[in-house]
Each structure stands twice: as C-alpha cells, then as structure tokens.
Amino acid sequence: MKKFFSTLILLSLSLQIFAQDASASLEQSIYASGKIYVVVACAAIILLGLILFLFSIDRRLKKLEKYSDPKN
Amino acid sequence: MSWSSQFLYCYFLTFGAINMNAMFKNWWKILGAVLVMYATVAGFLHSVPKLPILHESIRNLYFHVPMWFSMIILFAVSVFHSIKYLTTNNATHDLKAVESVNVGVVFGILGIVTGAVWAKFTWGQAWSFDVKQNFAAIALLLYFAYLVLRNAIDEEQKRAKISAIYNIFAFPMMVVLLFVLPRLSDSLHPGNGGNPGFNSYDLDSRMRMVFYPACLGWILIGYWIYTLKFRVRALDKYTTL
Predict the structure, then answer these.
(1) What is the total count of domains within chain A?
(2) In three state form, how does the secondary structure of A21-59 look?
(3) Min CA distance, B129 vs chain A (Å)?
C-alpha cells in the first residue's frame, strides 16, 4: 500500500519534468483575454473542497459507527 | 514542487493511509465526485450552440436540470423505503424514507432558485407565474407537507405508517405536477406547452457529452449525502456514543 502511494507521489513529482513550456500554455489559457479560466478554477476549487469535505464526514462517520455500541 | 504534486501530497496527508478495500466499496462516491468535477469544468469551457436569448446561459442546463433529476431520484428512493416500511414494519426504512426526502427537498430548492435566476435573465422575470414554476413550487410544498405531517404525529409507529402512505401518494402527484400538467398549457419552459424540448437546441449532441455525466454525477452525490444523513440518524437512534 505504502509502496503504491509513494510510487504515485514520486510519479507526480516527475510530472514537472514534462512541464517545460508550462508558462506558454498558461499564457494561452489562464491569462487569456476572457479570463473565464479564473472562474473555472474558483468553481472547481469550491466544488473540490465540498467533495473532500463529504469524504471527511464519511470517514468520521465510519469511525463513529465502528466504535459505538448498539443500544440494548 | 509542482502545483499538482503538492496537491497530491496534501491529499494523502489529509486522508492518511487510504484503505484500498474502502476505495473499491465506495467507487460510486468517487465516480460521482469525478463526474461532477468534470461536468462543472466542462460546463464552463465546452462549446455550446450559439442561440438568441439564451446565449451563454444555456450552460445552466448542466447545473439547473441535474438538481431536479437528483431530487426525483431521491424521492423515488424514499417511496421505495416507504413501501418497504409498510411491508416489513422495520423502523430503519422509515428513517431512510424521511432522510431521502430531506435531501431531495434541498435539491428541489436549489433547482427552483437556480430556475428563478435563469428565468430572470431569459424570461425577464425571476418568477413569472409560469405553469412550470408554479407546479414545481406546489410539488415542493407537497413534500414540505410530508415533513410537517411527520412532526405532527407523536406516536412513532403511527407516524411512520401514515407518512409512508402519504409519501407513496405524493410521488406520482409530484411527477404529474412536474411533467404532465405543464405540458397541457402555455409555458416558457423548454419541453412544455408547445415549446420544443432542450434536446432540439443541440442537434449536434455537443451538450450531451456534459449533460448526461452531470446528471449521473449529481444523482450520485445526492444519494451519497442521503446515506450520510441516514447514518447519522441511525447512529443517533440505535446507539449510545
């Protein structure tokens, strides 16, 4: 399990090697005239935050269910 | 560190050791999250047909309509559990029925409010007393009545039985109010009163690439919230913490 995720994290670290012209594509996208990508980024962050919040509630609930004793 | 790797790092820090088993069991929650994220980003960026009046607001299709579909699925889940309650007399089904209505009502309110905002800028008024709007409001009131009815009865089994029967009758009423009656008279809403349905607006099916995933994603998220609410309620009722 740990191996899997360390591999995943290291893989993601290596992503920046392929991002040589990141600034060029950024200028084409996020700094483009309409700036709609800024709104998209904000909306995506809000949504992602809410979804991660749901996952954390789910985990906390699972823990509670595990440690609670059924009545009677 | 690049932005993406930093994000992944934070993610694994927050969630610690992720249980692969739980991940496979909860695949539909992840699917819902991914679909909703995709639908939101693509909803802003994907190309849409250029139409008068609607213009870019046509993108509301990806946000406004999935709210209603999620509501209907949640109400259908509620009816299923109401029927289960009446056949088994198991109080758990009653809890499931009421919690799915609770979540469904939230989605319905979101649907009606987003509808009003959209109407303000395309129909000219937030609330023009269009048949679709009126009947949608009545359908929601029908379910508010369900929740009020529950609170009015103190005796637990009686409450469960009466509200289950009410719920089973409310569902077809809601379907008729939302999908049948508005079609019989003039309405500004697409798909009603001689207006063409929204599917006629995107003959090249561009919008379907986003619309269908949006619907499925929001339905899954709605169902997930319902399961969370039910589990809290069940913990509250059946266990000592």
Answers:
(1) 1
(2) CHHHHHHHHCCCCCCHHHHHHHHHHHHHHHHHHHHHHHH
(3) 31
